[in-house]
Fold this protein.
Amino acid sequence: WLPTFLKTERHLSVVGTGGYLLVIIVGSFVGYLTGAWLTDRAGRRANLLIFAMLSGITIYAYTQLRLTNDQMLVLGFPLGFAASGIFSGMGAYLTELFPSAVRANGQGFAYNFGRGLGALFPSLVGYLAHGYGLGMAIGMFAGGAYLVVLITALLLPETKGREIS
């Protein structure tokens, strides 16, 4: 929905959205690398908590605040950085949460259940955008998703350094 948001609510041309998306993509790449480092350095939960908070803040600012186009361009880097950095440690964390007898099934189910649930969001964003506006709809679903990540990360154990068998 981001290209549509930039075109319809920010009134950028189709060509104009490309520069904004490039900044987000570069931020995403750096976020993946940083998230991987942070996962190994600070722990799996810390990575999830830090990047979920950063993602919530940046998506709120990007979709809800009145920003100039220059501010939107600059904010694109931290938006991509935070949104992608959260995924770097996901594989390691899910692997370490399950005992070896059910590790592959547990990880596969947890990851793909989340993907399946998340697959509903684009349609729901489109539906809600008619009544609330696209920025608000994106903000509601992204904010809700990051809130779920925060709560879940607080409830699950840290697995950094845990021996798995």
